[in-house]
Sequence to fold (280 residues):
Amino acid sequence: MKRPEHNTPAAELRCEVCGLMPEPPKARLTLANVAVMLPIELLVHALVVETHLPYVAKVLVLTLTATVLVIWVAEPSAARMLLRWLHAPALRQRRQLASAPSLWRARTLLRDQPGSLQRITAALARLDTNILSIHVHPVPDGVLDEFVLSVPGEVGEPELLAALLDGGGSSPHVWPTTALAMADGQTRALSLGARIAAAPDELPLAVAELLHARIVPPSDAGLKMPDDGTHLKIPTAWHGPITFARPGEPFTPAESARAHRLAELAEIMSYRPAGSPTAR
Fold:
């Protein structure tokens, strides 16, 4: 069987798992069947009525012929010829979803000089990208700018990376994200600080949540870690050093500072006297 082309309605709507098309609206399906069946019914009736068969035979011939033609000709023809019209609502909804804005997180290194931010925002604006938030992290080679972007649906990772490079950025990285990224790091750190104040043992999980990182098992912590900024070690008094990993997304100095402050808070709370007002 010939596979549909990628730009056909069948290619856009066919289920990737079962290969079936969605059920069209009943009203459209009824109109399509009537439009195809009516000429066939009229032609069959005109031919049979002119014959000299008995009345009962005419009824049987009309019934059987019309049924066979409807099953084998009318319905398949309606589904094939009026495919785009039948599935127009689903196609319209699918295209609206495809063109809906998506959220991305982006990071890139910039030179710490006037005009750097203006150039990169202009490059993003050429893609109709809306910058929802921006955080600037000082680093030894300049500044690391972190963005949350609302991007048109047709814009993907390659276009975003090219725009960041075109705007003067270096070592760009982009990741799809959700609306939770709009909660800035300081807000998340304060919320997790309250969690640690109530339960200091929650420190590893809280830091992993804050940094969107995974906890490296103690058995692997002694192995040689890559020197690319994707591993972060936090000393603690009762757990020993805890190592976190985030492949492909180096930790910023601000993130490292927040994680260390949370560790200090957990240590302070763990040594509170049992009778103190803030102890559990």
